[in-house]
Amino acid sequence: MSKRVGIVGAGVTPFKGTWREKTYYELSQMAAREAVKDAQIDINDVDAAFYGIYNDIFERTAIPDHAIHGLLGMQDKFGIRITNGGATGAYTMSAAHAYLAAGRFKMALVLGVEKATDCFDFSSMSATPEVIKSIGWSGDSFFEQGIGWSASDSYAEVVLGYMDEHPGDLKPEITAQISAQLSQQVRSNPYAQRQFDQVTPEEVLNSRLVVYPFKELEICVYTEGAAAVIFAEEETAKAISKTSGKPVIWITGVGEANEHSFAGKKQKNMSRIMSDYYASRRAYEMAGIKDPTKSIEIIELHDAFVHQLEITMAEFGLVPLGRADSLIEENLMTPGGKYVVNPCGGLIYCGHAVGASNIMSAWSARNELIKRKLNTALVHGTGSTVAQFTACLILEHG
Amino acid sequence: MEREVPLLNSPRVSSLSTDRKGETIMGTEKERVILSKYIPEVGSHTEAIDGKDYLITNDAMYTFYQRTKGEFSPFFLALRDEKKLLGCKCSKCGLVRVPPFLTHCPDCNFAPTDLVEVQQVGVMNSTPPITYFATSLFQDMAPYGRGRVIFRGAETAMSVNLFTTTGILVPGIIAKGTEVKLIFRDNRIGEMRDVFCVSTAELSPEQIKKNGLQESEVDWESPTEPGLPEPSDEDVPVYRKALGEIKSIIEEMNRNERARKDIAGWKRDILVKTRGGQFTIFINDGDIRIDEFEPPSPDFVMVCEDPWTLLDGLAYRGAITDSVINKKLWISKNMEFNTIFKLDRMARSVARSRKT
Predict the structure, then answer these.
(1) pLDDT, position B355
(2) Do B131 and A267 touch (CB under 8 A)?
(3) Are residues B155 and B239 in the same domain?
């Protein structure tokens, strides 16, 4: 019988476009210090560390976790790095959950970190083209890298595939409205990269096309930062909760799915994000959720792109496929609506420090469950080419 | 000497040839897999934050390869030497996969597959994205499409670049179900960039029928500068008013630290031609200014019949990028999309600063 696992502490660094004054070593320690402080534990009580770091090129080293293990006080203990594209953080939490549920450890540090914008393009004298080039090395190296594969164009393939099937959905005025709403929600997140970058739907509509159909203000931003959560098995979690005075947020469901990366018959269906579908259904089943529309209250969704946020909500079964615009048109995610979606501002406004992003989402979901006195949240990570990878976690306020 | 490729605004030249900056064409020793413009000098500098100096060094993490193509060799050699497109057919279920990215079918408990040739015309599996803002590796190729084509005889889709013979690729030219033709580059080295697709609607029946059709056999629209009508009596005052406002915005950009950062290290002289008159925008490492003086050799030319098109972009009332895509504004070099992005970025920076 697997053990119950809960979150007993969490912390994040400020998410910033660039941290000139910190390396990823210090960012990692900053987040870990915050999480330990939040749980009111001693780092020496932690049995194992799980590191979510996406891209070796960003950190400029092939084993980026080796140096941080010791400086986090984890010398001579278990340490493992997970890297799964954009879904790195969610998969790292999934792995940590599995080890604790299996009884291997009583308490674990789950830490995500990324330092992306040291990458610099000396031909245009700006960071972004080199950052997206570095991500471009993640594409298929035989058939796709050489013809301009990028994270944006591969997600755009899925979005356009969906729009081929549902031409009336994902209307530009709706995606613009969602982006503008997220920019308002981020105001209350003091750790966000764009806390004070509020935009109007008109500004979103007027922003430049980066990769058709994505406009600049509909895309997540590259970020540097770290996030950490402390997971503990049931008895340990309850003991920590007594001391800290903070409730345990239980991880009651976990689900993952990775699709085929090539398209066509028996392969990737470009009009769907089946990884989101399968991962969410597996998480619901484990959590005993029969009807997610009646159970899920908070969604911390990996919004790499606003259009993908809408499709993902449909794949979660929270709105019908082809009617994702109902999120706005039927006030399902507008303030006061049925679903609280990305109260932290999401990756578009809080920022996307890849390995840390989904862990930041878990930090936010935990905070919101406690603050709003709600019961159930869904945390999501998506990544790799054509939204191939997904991991979902169900968090419940015990 | 390295091969520094001239950049011209022709799909055939700029989109199809100059993007091959990473190539090593056999028989020439001068070309390098990385152009010098991407390689920084050894050095370091400091940036001050809250009164403290932080050190930043120029650096690179590079690895060179002699990349083995292994079981994919027949596919790439067929592209390079025979101008043929190969797939693999499962001996059990008969599924034909293109490209032939496996030797045994995972759907049939790893039954072996055989290489088969498929046709060079197919249809789009879904509407392809178009990249306008590319990674540093592909800035010279943008704008470009990349989408998946199911070629006749195949059941899976192959990723290819998509171009148009009519200028800049814009949404609507190629969509789900559009029939496209595989085109072979004149110079091929055995990689996916050896081929690309264009809509068959832009080709003759003979070209569509021909196997191994090469880029040099296709007519590409020349990048001719659009002519402007003689200015009317109303045009000149309209131009003067727009110019006054553009000057004022450019001056504001020049005073704005965030906007100045957007053009740090960038230098361009842009000749802007409109119906009522012409002027030049000078960008020089953080500085931007405007003058009615025409430089002897501008880096590129921008033509917009209505000066308000540019003005609206600079004033953050719409993206200049979109004006280029929508053909309201013409630029003489596709690679200067990069500069257009920077101007759009500056407009946003000024707008953001006004809010805060």
Answers:
(1) 81
(2) no
(3) no
**Strand extents, DSSP E, A327-370:** 340-341
Looking at the predicted structure, is the pLDDT value of residue B8 above 70? no
**Chain A residues near residue B65 by CB distance under 8 angstroms:** none
* pTM to 2 decimal places: 0.93
**Interchain CB distance below 8 Å, B150 and A136:** no
| Domain boundary pick from B164, B191, B217 | B217
CA distance B52 to B181: 59
Q: A227 and A108 in contact (C-beta within 8 Å)? A: no
Q: Which domain holds residue B271?
A: 235-355
Domain A5-119+222-244: what homologous superfamily? Thiolase/Chalcone synthase (3.40.47.10)
Enumerate the residues of chain A whose CB falls inside 8 A of the CB of residue B39.
122
Integer Cα distance of B260 and B106 in angstroms: 55
Residues with Cβ within 8 Å of residue B26, at least 6 apart in sequence:
B189
* Mean local confidence (pLDDT), A208-222: 96
Nearest to B265 among A125, A157, A264 (CB): A125
Alpha carbon distance A53, B75 (integer Å):
35
Contacts of B147 in chain A (CB under 8 A): 157
**Is the same domain home to B155 and B209?**
yes
User: Quick check: is B211 in a domain?
Assistant: yes
- Best B79, B124, B133, B195 residue to mutate vs chain A (most A CBs within 10 Å): B133
Share of chain B above pLDDT 70, in %: 91
Q: In this predicted model, what pLDDT tens digit does every residue of A235-279 receive, in sequence order?
A: 999 999 999 999 999 999 999 999 999 999 999 999 999 999 999
Residue B98 falls within a domain, yes or no?
yes
Cβ-defined contact of B148 to A270 (cutoff 8 Å):
yes
B1 vs A: CB within 8 A:
no
Provide the domain count of chain B. Answer: 3
Mean pLDDT, residues A112-119: 96
**CB-based contact B264 A125, cutoff 8 Å:** yes
Indicate if B332 and B211 belong to the same structural domain. Answer: no
